[in-house]
Amino acid sequence: MINYNPREWFTFIFRIHKADTVKKLFPMFCAIAIYSAAIAWLELEVFKLSEKDHIKNITSMHGLLGFVISLLLVFRTNTAYDRWWEGRRQWGALVNNSRNLAMKIQAMLPAGHPAAAFFRTMIPNYAYALKDHLRGEHHPSKLEGMSAEDLEKMGTGIHIPNYIATLILKKANELYRQQVISGEQLITLNTQLEAFADICGACERIKNTPIPFSYSVFLKKFIFFYVMTLPMGYVFGLGYLVIPMVVFIFYVLASLELIAEEIEDPFGKDANDLPTEMISANIRKHVQEIL
Amino acid sequence: MINYNPREWFTFIFRIHKADTVKKLFPMFCAIAIYSAAIAWLELEVFKLSEKDHIKNITSMHGLLGFVISLLLVFRTNTAYDRWWEGRRQWGALVNNSRNLAMKIQAMLPAGHPAAAFFRTMIPNYAYALKDHLRGEHHPSKLEGMSAEDLEKMGTGIHIPNYIATLILKKANELYRQQVISGEQLITLNTQLEAFADICGACERIKNTPIPFSYSVFLKKFIFFYVMTLPMGYVFGLGYLVIPMVVFIFYVLASLELIAEEIEDPFGKDANDLPTEMISANIRKHVQEIL
Amino acid sequence: MINYNPREWFTFIFRIHKADTVKKLFPMFCAIAIYSAAIAWLELEVFKLSEKDHIKNITSMHGLLGFVISLLLVFRTNTAYDRWWEGRRQWGALVNNSRNLAMKIQAMLPAGHPAAAFFRTMIPNYAYALKDHLRGEHHPSKLEGMSAEDLEKMGTGIHIPNYIATLILKKANELYRQQVISGEQLITLNTQLEAFADICGACERIKNTPIPFSYSVFLKKFIFFYVMTLPMGYVFGLGYLVIPMVVFIFYVLASLELIAEEIEDPFGKDANDLPTEMISANIRKHVQEIL
Amino acid sequence: MINYNPREWFTFIFRIHKADTVKKLFPMFCAIAIYSAAIAWLELEVFKLSEKDHIKNITSMHGLLGFVISLLLVFRTNTAYDRWWEGRRQWGALVNNSRNLAMKIQAMLPAGHPAAAFFRTMIPNYAYALKDHLRGEHHPSKLEGMSAEDLEKMGTGIHIPNYIATLILKKANELYRQQVISGEQLITLNTQLEAFADICGACERIKNTPIPFSYSVFLKKFIFFYVMTLPMGYVFGLGYLVIPMVVFIFYVLASLELIAEEIEDPFGKDANDLPTEMISANIRKHVQEIL
Amino acid sequence: MINYNPREWFTFIFRIHKADTVKKLFPMFCAIAIYSAAIAWLELEVFKLSEKDHIKNITSMHGLLGFVISLLLVFRTNTAYDRWWEGRRQWGALVNNSRNLAMKIQAMLPAGHPAAAFFRTMIPNYAYALKDHLRGEHHPSKLEGMSAEDLEKMGTGIHIPNYIATLILKKANELYRQQVISGEQLITLNTQLEAFADICGACERIKNTPIPFSYSVFLKKFIFFYVMTLPMGYVFGLGYLVIPMVVFIFYVLASLELIAEEIEDPFGKDANDLPTEMISANIRKHVQEIL
């Protein structure tokens, strides 16, 4: 994620950031400029179509469909943003959950009980494991205090966050069987203990379920034909000025689709993705402060 | 569900996928093209209506109603998408729930207790049973480790997911009565045990409740009359170009309605439906990893 | 509720269903057609207003206010649909709750305990009582296994769903006092036991709280004046064609308001209302399958 | 709250109800009519501006900004309605909560235990106290069965709903210490016992937090300048007809803002406010039926 | 936060409040006025472009993109407002939680138990600590009754709200170990005890996650180019009147973006920020009333 000060308008407007859609779409801008120029040249100079030609009025279609395409792009933006924000909320829940579990363990264990060290390493390990799991990676070096046996098992392609969550659940039930914590205390730990798998499942759901295929196809086809037919009608009113206009309209429509695509899977390493690395580090820091 | 890379614009735009609305609507496109051509021919060549005829100004109605139809189609899209996404969330909840139950059972049971095998087969069985139940099917071969008696009962037309959920609840209460798990542990299992029926009920609700009949009828009538009256007015400005324009506008409006219809019942085998088969297989895989 | 196949476009478009707004609004269509014809006749033939008269440009007001009226009608549609869907969710919750309670009772009670029969009749009774309560009716014949004393009390105008919920809660606490179920088991029953009153309250809230009076009045006034002034300006461009245009625009605007009115109280017997009768029957069927 | 039949269109359209925005805005209508007439007179008869004057085209600005103002007013309407509906949901939750607590107490207490009388009066007292608290009032006469000591304390300006909630919590814990109810029963009462303060807090939040100041100011400025500049451009097309048009547009825009203002604080005695008085009376009635 | 009476229209419209966007944007207004004047002078008097020049029709682009920019600004407004409102809800939850915890402690502790004094100071301390934490400040003087040791530790840069929440959790578990409160009572305290960390995490999430960078950049670029190209086309119709028109359109668009920026981080000291100071004081007042 890029940290930025939303109030610095000027640098935003004139600097082309690496994640900027202007940069990504630049080759398309050129192609569309050439296409528009060709249409204008053909209509104005080759076929010498007059202002009275019917093709001029194709612009009325663009007016009518302008609402639909705008509303659909905002629908697209909304759903993509909702996933991004839900991803953020899930990682926020992981923070809350890690802290609450650490605080409760700290409040329940007798001073100096060895299980504190277990939770002190395992709770942050879960965050690191989940981050890497969502990126399809595995970095055992980030996981602290795992036994050699655990590390070996985790290298066999199993679901690593589940494995760590099971270890945490087992330890809590073991403490209960050893009567270090009472049954009532186990109940108060339950929300935190089951939240790990819930958060992991929610993130997997966001990651694995893009917007339905049909909408994605439809929207791209719609934008394409809308933009491709734009210069045909507007060339009569605008002449060669139709070139920057079509490029600008394409910039607006395609940017919205592009940003939505980038944002709807928020767990990667794109410029707009969530700072899961930093959140994991914060969880480790705060859990170690508490325990 | 179709897995796709949302960033491959060109294949999207030019390939006609089998679930593509272009394919489904093709016969309608032809009919509407013929209808528009007929209207154009009648108005321009038979009746030779001049530009000053009142019918030309019917286009102002299309302008005024353009907002309403766009907003209604986006409302339709939103509600259909919300159901699809809620369906996905329910199946995500089933994943979380199955994992959490398996992990807790694993943490609570003494090593080697025979009940582990029961949960190892029954938790994934629930997912398979629910998937088939939502499709109005029954595939006993997908259910592992069911007794002959259970299989027989399930063949009598009873509600199979309920039957399996009851078996799981009974086993948990039996373990409690046998004091294998304590009362406090039973309480911590409760959320997972009752989630099965909640998820099943929510999926049935989505499946059995399409958008209210009146909206569905109204929207179809509205699209129909809107598109049918389109060529009457625009033919004066556009001539025979009115044919592709009307077809394209119909493509946009009808696609939105068609996709919404397909998506609002997300548990079937349509191209856009949820991958419940794959999710069930994943549940089996992960539960077996854990237990 | 009407069961329908949303993909049968043609029957939808040409059949006038009994709940169809076309049918309900037909007298209004006639009145508005006559009104528009009168306006057109007066302006064109009596006063012989020319195209240059100022009244022609009143159409610019309709253009400006077209957005607002469209957005307001979609706001209206959204809020009405949300109530309908929330009502459906509450009844879905009643299904889940009834099933879960039946399953848990079945798992907890020793085989052959007489309390099973009590829950087997009382859980479905609650659904029937709630359905009738929301319709302001009382059908004792639908309630199975009630004692004569209970039936008599219920005839005195008391809140019947509350009465049945109290019976269920009392029975559960009685089983606990008799140590048939343990304290921990009582806790796991708690969510289901308290859901009855929550669902009932939510349905009563939806039923008793229409959209605020001011919005309802404002929207009706707005539609009325908008449609009444429509023919005044458009008559110059459209001549007597203004009649079908005004009727069609009125059809669209008034239909949205009418459907919203019908749908926002979803517990009656209107064509679009929820199938609470059928859901109650299903609850009885499934609870009897389980217990 | 006004009870009304949403299907009586005609009385709605022609009757001016006391809460009607037409009545409230009437002085403004006159002012705006005079202002528009003055603008029209100045432009048409004093300065005799011709149709070619640049000021005529100021209308294009109104077209462009028409979307923004419509969308903002719908945003305003949505947020105000959401508060109103959330307030209603909170009071619905109070109903559910009061009923559930009464039912549970009834199921748990031995027949004839004196604590029943306590809950029978205190649960409805909470609703009455909350209603008056949200209106900044205090009516001790509405509270039944309070001891003289309690009434005296409540007269000292303390937070009365909190005081009553504390009494209820204390009684429940006292019953637990006296072993009238068991620990497990106390746990099942917990949701209801803590809901009182949650509901009170949510209502206070809605009451004390209007829409951010900046939006409120911005929207009013925007409506004002939008309407004030309207006659300047439209006078050329509409002549003195600009007067009713500007008044009607002002009616629509200002009504939306006015209704939103009235509705966003739903606990007062305005015509559109929630029927908290009636809900409190219903809670008393139903709790007394149960206990 | 500014307390205001939303019904005082006139003071709102004519007074320039310090948080008013008119004040903040004033330098930009001047720059844009000069720019527009320059464009008008160049086009009308230097190049003497006639009404037939193509550049006149660039206005059609502004019409087409008017929907998109309006919808995007409303999307921006919605997301910013949602954060602001979620922040308010979290602080409301802190109020509810503090009250409920105080009431429960009061109901559970024997009269005169010294732990009451601990909760009486620590619960409000949490609110003060959270407020300062969200502003990146630390004011030990606001925290009552902290031991010297605690104050010293809190000065070392640790996460202060977490530290206080841990103290509260420890005290509750200590009371449980000393059998002052029973296991069941500990369970009923659990929701309140774990809410502290959840609320803190949610506020941190809102504070640290502005809208994705790409949207922020895109929207600013879009507004900038939209406004910059406005005078080019409209100058032909409006002459020098284009200057106030462009300034007014810029005012509307930029105000929405500016207010959204201010509001999406609601925990600071800006004019529109939440009254966290006052809420903290209220929590102290009410907790001291109860305990």
TrEMBL record, chains A, B, C, D, E:
<protein>
    <recommendedName>
        <fullName>Bestrophin</fullName>
    </recommendedName>
</protein>
<keyword id="KW-1133">Transmembrane helix</keyword>
<keyword id="KW-0406">Ion transport</keyword>
<keyword id="KW-0472">Membrane</keyword>
<feature type="transmembrane region" description="Helical">
    <location>
        <begin position="25"/>
        <end position="42"/>
    </location>
</feature>
<dbReference type="GO" id="GO:0005886">
    <property type="term" value="C:plasma membrane"/>
</dbReference>
<keyword id="KW-1003">Cell membrane</keyword>
<dbReference type="GO" id="GO:0005254">
    <property type="term" value="F:chloride channel activity"/>
</dbReference>
<keyword id="KW-0813">Transport</keyword>
<feature type="transmembrane region" description="Helical">
    <location>
        <begin position="54"/>
        <end position="75"/>
    </location>
</feature>
<dbReference type="InterPro" id="IPR044669">
    <property type="entry name" value="YneE/VCCN1/2-like"/>
</dbReference>
<keyword id="KW-0812">Transmembrane</keyword>
<dbReference type="Pfam" id="PF25539">
    <property type="entry name" value="Bestrophin_2"/>
</dbReference>
<comment type="similarity">
    <text>Belongs to the anion channel-forming bestrophin (TC 1.A.46) family.</text>
</comment>
<feature type="transmembrane region" description="Helical">
    <location>
        <begin position="223"/>
        <end position="253"/>
    </location>
</feature>
